[in-house]
Amino acid sequence: MLKNYLPDIRIILIALGLRILWAIAVPVIPVSDSNAYDTFALNLATGQGYGWESGDPTAYWPPGTSFVYALFYWLFGHNYLPIIVFNLLLTAVIIWVSMRLAETWFNRRIAIVTGIILALWPSQIQFTTVLASELLFTALVLVGLWLWLNEGLTLRSRALGVAVVLAAASYVRPTALLIPILLLFERAVRTREIFKNLTATLVMFVVMALLIAPWSIRNTQVFGQFTTISTNSGANLWMGNNPESTGGYMPLPPEAKGMNEAQRDDYLKSAAVAHIKEKPFLFIRRSLVRLVQTHARESIGVSWNEKGLVKRYGTGVLLPLKIINQLYWLAALGLGLIGIVLLGKQQGWVMMISHPTVLFWGYFAAVHAVIVAQDRYHFPSIPMIAILAALTILSLLKVRQKRQKISETS
């Protein structure tokens, strides 16, 4: 049995080797959101609560990533090495599960190529030294999807297992809250068992709600009104939908100052919705722009390592790394888009729309087309893009081999 998976193990070992070399070469210096996760985790580990400082609780960032880092700080002190090791473990999970999914949906060869694509992906290597939610969230979503597709378990068992995993993912990023609907749609199209699937989805939502409830109760007590996981949904929606929006991050408006986080979130959400209703065609145009912005580049791995890179190697290393990232990303993106077309031709367009590679990529793309764009927001889609890219590569190789045979016989 182990012999069958030797190629997979080799791919993962190569991936880990590249990431270990990166971790040796680049020091961890938290910036932007990484600094927030670092600060919150340190405060949690030292008993000061979840916030920038003791007595000032926050829920602006979802707490899941900081909870994990806080455990490491509590056990090992304020040391980034355990986080690097954790990121390596997440890498192994992401590649392994992505390969298993590719093999389930297609074949063994596509699984191998998927693993190679992910192992060599520059930004994924660079995130080894970044304190961020991307790797953790991606791993949890993939594990949840793998559990859902595991026909060796009963549907009820799968629903319970997926609910636990997706609740954990929701603590990392609340976009996971709606994933049960994607799973319902995928299985309903595949099996036509509407009632069973609805029941399983209801179980998932109930279990997720129970697991998220403690944090919601904490937030409601802190801010004086019901708040689920985080208080940044209104801010993100407003950043993408206000008269001065460029589609990306922007400072919050002065009029929101003085409100607590929940009040500010409600205010910004209302302002954004009002703007969308007032200019619906502008919203549609901006959504298309944000869709492009999210997929136009992939430089965040360099940007969030910039201080460490400059400290060791100077500014001259930044542009070459960004060029490498961009070339790899555009190649993978192009191959992935072709893969969608090939999937439609092979399995039919209805099955293509409900295929998890397309469904999950489309979901994460749509979410950020509505709210705010940034290149890191396509990270949860990377395993799906890699699988579709692998499908394209092997399809092209198959066509080439057929042409060679024809030319040899003619």
Automatic annotation (TrEMBL):
One GO term of the biological process aspect: lipopolysaccharide biosynthetic process
GO molecular function: pentosyltransferase activity
Positions of the Glycosyltransferase RgtA/B/C/D-like domain: 62-215
Bilayer topology annotation: Multi-pass membrane protein
GO CC, any one term: plasma membrane
Compartments reported by the entry: Cell membrane
Domain of life from the UniProt record: Bacteria
Pfam families recorded: PMT_2
Keyword field contains Nucleotidyltransferase: no
Annotated transmembrane regions: 12-32, 83-99, 105-123, 161-185, 197-217, 327-344, 356-373, 379-397
Assigned keywords, A-Z: Cell membrane, Glycosyltransferase, Membrane, Transferase, Transmembrane, Transmembrane helix
PANTHER family documented for this protein: MANNOSYLTRANSFERASE YKCB-RELATED, MEMBRANE PROTEIN
Name of the featured protein: Glycosyltransferase RgtA/B/C/D-like domain-containing protein
Species whose genome carries this gene: Coleofasciculus chthonoplastes PCC 7420
